[in-house]
Amino acid sequence: MDDSLEKLMLAKTDDELLDYLMDIKDYSANEVRLALFELKKRGKYFNELQWDYFQQVIKSKEAEESPDTPSYYPRQSLFIYAMLLPMLFAYVVFSLNLKNRRDKWVIIGFAITYTIFMITLGNRLNMPARIPILFNFIGAFVLEIFLWNRYIGKNVLYKNRSMLAPILIALGIWIPLILLSLYLEFG
Fold first, then answer.
1. What is the pTM assigned to this prediction?
2. One domain, residues 165 and 78
């Protein structure tokens, strides 16, 4: 650890050290860790829930700061993306998180098969428009619970990649298709 940073923490008041914990996002993992341990040395009590929270935040910040931490499209964003846009797009974006080419094609193949199944079932049973939304929810949960845990890992720390480009690409494809289908139906 950095001796000069340790000396700096020793010189700080308890309130100044607590600022490191209150504005945790503004400080490095090392600064937060040193402030936390200095407060503990001074007799500040942290219950188990608080201690676990700070340890998790420090671990997460270390992952963000490390150049070796992988960068993935975020799990929660993919879940929302799969529910709001055609699920196939979310699965393609998820596959970009994977390094193994075979795994990528397994994910995309599953998404294509599932999409064809949804369309076929919807057409055969003449389902109302809201039923395919249910299929998107199911596909989003499969991505969130099973596929992410299997191919990336349940508790893997990673840096978040921006979802802006995938969202813009999906909207650039999806909006013209919707407009075309409306034109053909009412045109």
1. 0.69
2. yes
